[in-house]
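Hi F.,

I've been meaning to write this up properly since the lab meeting, where we talked about keeping a consistent format for the predictions we share between groups. The idea is simple: the sequence comes first, exactly as it goes in, then the structure tokens exactly as they come out, then a line or two of notes. No screenshots and no reformatting. I'm using this chain as the first example so we have something concrete to point to.
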Amino acid sequence: MSYPSLNFALGETIDMLRDQVQSFVAKELAPRAAQIDIDNLFPADMWHKFGDMGLLGITVPEEYGGAGLGYLAHVVAMEEISRGSASVALSYGAHSNLCVNQINRNGTHEQKLKYLPKLISGEHIGALAMSEPNAGSDVVSMKLRADKRGSVYVLNGSKTWITNGPDANTYVIYAKTDLEKGAHGITAFIVERDSKGFSRSNKFDKLGMRGSNTCELFFDDVEVPEENILGALNGGVKVLMSGLDYERVVLSGGPTGIMQACMDLIVPYIHDRKQFGQPIGTYQGISFKLADMATQIRAAELLTLNTAWKMDQGTMTDGEAGMAKLFASEVLGKVADEAVQIYGGMGLMDEGPVERIWRNARIERIWEGTSEIQRHIIARELLRPLLR
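Output, unedited:
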């Protein structure tokens, strides 16, 4: 038994996409979610299946092997995959949005022809490397250097907390190309896995999102050809900042999907679990929790879908993207916590479904801009007219 999805009429194409992804996830991904978490192994076979379904290049034109759909469709896919496995969805978002969509939006025709088809088919896995040990929220303070030597740039330094880092074939990397220009001296590069001098640490053993592998990347005189600059030389901040809003909105589909997974568990549980001779769902204390959870989920999904729709229309603002990311991730924390409370002692059991959801939920308030950063972005936009 599953909680009825809070679906909306989003048009025939997107509604059909939701149905297809939902069916696939229920049959092939959700039954494996617990074991993926226990084994902490990246399910590489899923990438070929996602590729066959056209999910890895949803926002990419058909010319390069994509589906030619928009960000609303991407959010829907992210939501349904997250409902089946939060960790697989995390890797999916890092691949399809942080890497594939960045190359699609900023790459040359030649770069797109070279890298996108294999990423979209699932033959290759993608990642984006932005964070460093001392450059998280303050990302422009990054230290990775890229020095020009003839027709190549030589990279030295490291990146950390890189989702898909251990498994990727293609990386979008940000590095300092002019130390004196600060934020305007950063350039984005496409780096290949087998580049000489490029290495990866062992994957991190994380609290949650196990099976979505994360590691540190090391660059020791890694030579990257000039034609692998993504966007303009010293234009990396423009690539980075222009992509963040897209990333935050698409990845907001993760929390809404995880919340749906919570309800898939809670609704049958409070019907079947009996105390004092009756289902616990008949008690006001539990039924009110259920009502609050359902209301919060609907509000988060409405906000996320509306923001994605505005993104497709070209009318979305930074603050609106921040609102979607902030609200969806914060509400998820509350819903996951209430799910553990409703399950009681069983909610704390290792490798249990609710315990796994609670662990997976925690990162959503951190990655792709912390809740504090989102509040800063929202407030800045609201106050901007007053500061002119």
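Notes:
Strands lie at 126-129, 145-149, 152-163, 170-176, 186-192, 198-200, 214-225, 229-230, 274-275, 278-279.
The chain has three domains: 12-125, 128-235, 239-387.

If this format works for you, I'll send the rest the same way.

G.
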